[in-house]
Amino acid sequence: MATADKMTPSESISDTSPSTESGEWIHDDPLAHRRLRGGEFWREVPAFEEVTQEEFHDYKWQMKNSLYGERRLMELMDGLAPPEFIEDAKKGFALAPMAVRVTPYLFSLINWDDPWTDPIRTQFIPIASRLSEDHPMLTLDSLHEQSDAPVDGLTHRYSDKALFLPLDTCPVYCRFCTRSYAIGIDTDTVEKVKLRVNPKRWEEAFEYIENCPQLEDIVISGGDAYNLAFKHIETIGMRLLEMPNIRRLRFATKGLAVMPMKILSDRRWLDAMTRVVDQGRQMHKQVVIHTHFNHPNEITEISLRALDTLFERGILVRNQSVLQRGVNDDPETMALLVKRLGEVNVHPYYVYQHDMVQGVEDLRTSVHTNGEIEKYVRGVTAGFNTPTFVVDAPGGGGKRAVHSYEHYNRETGISVYTAPSVKPGEHFLYFDPLHSLDDDIREAWKDEDKKEQMIADALDAAGAN
């Protein structure tokens, strides 16, 4: 049976099973979570060595100098990264389902002495040598968001909650994006669904929400709320708060992790968000920000200043991480991330099992790995500051606690979940990545008859038939 994700020796990723030594940083360096990277670290990148602190901390400079596409990234990596890495990345760009876009801030946080294993590079810049064979059950829209969309850009799956997608752009593009079917420009491998900024389309979503009295909770995502103009933040927020049925709003943004200086230098956007939050509070309704830190290295002194600013304004921030192989798939890294989030007043909310999207199989881990990390992290800090580790059940089952499967066969890598309050009577299957399975099982997944039999056996074991 497969007991852990397989990796090549060159990847040097630690075993995910906790041991008596895995808590070393907690015992020997219990204050590691308080030490954040500061100083003018961006000057270590030759292209940014003359950039002043005033420029680097300006969101407009970050946006203007964002590294969009292959050519610009190649220019900046030339002389900074090894030539063989640059060639590896060039090949990776052609195979990626997501366009590549990285802020100067993120680019500067990468360890260019070892870009192959750097956790920030791993999330944003694809390299061909690390890509893995896709599992045959992967899709571009594994969560069936489009199937559960009554109008364009609005997914209504849970009875009282809906996901509103007002735009399809982000300040950066994550390789692992669950919406690679829509986010960013078309790539060599994917023609995107279009969800551009369009108030007329928004009004169709608002009308649907108003006519569903059971809806109480709206997530405003995309794309990324960071890329909404300040007037749109206020328009969307106030329009939703006016609806008697709406009790909670969540503005979702990766921005705090990839361009925290926007909070410090875009006063109009910050003030608009504050007005929506304050209006919600006056109406006894909750308005919060959900963000997306995945690794402790993403939290810097600039992050702290931005998050302190939000905290001073009474804006609650929650975090949703994605478990990723080679990024945060070991207990120590995840524990440090959770502790560091608490240090900067961000509530660790979820750690997601990586969704089954195509083209990023190298980043997925097994459900077993997720469960083992959850066991270790629980107890590192207070329970209210400990994230819930979940699988967003493929096919639209919604979030399921990782341990709550009806059946899990670690040999075939199939776990089966149910969602009685979301889609009663249905069963939802998650498939561990091929690289976590033994060779004979990997071969079996290539055989149509064996594939169908493994799935049928899993469903039988879960009581589905």
Question: Helical proportion?
Answer: 25-40%
**Given the C-alpha coordinates, what overall shape results?**
globular
The total number of structural domains is 2
For the CA atoms, what is the radius of gyration?
22 Å
Question: At the third CATH level, what is the topology name of the largest domain?
Answer: TIM Barrel
| Lateral strand order in the biggest sheet | 3-4-5-6-7-8-9-10-11
What is the H level of CATH, i.e. the homologous superfamily of the largest domain?
Aldolase class I
Helix-and-strand structural type = alpha/beta
CATH class category name of the largest domain? Alpha Beta
Query: What's the β-strand tally?
Result: 14
Poorly predicted parts: 1-23, 184-190
Average of pLDDT: 89
DSSP strand content: 5-15%
Instruction: Specify the number of helices.
Output: 17
Main pleated-sheet profile:
9 strands, mixed
Instruction: Please give the alpha-carbon distance between the first and last residues.
Output: 25 Å
Going by CATH, the architecture of the largest domain would be: Alpha-Beta Barrel
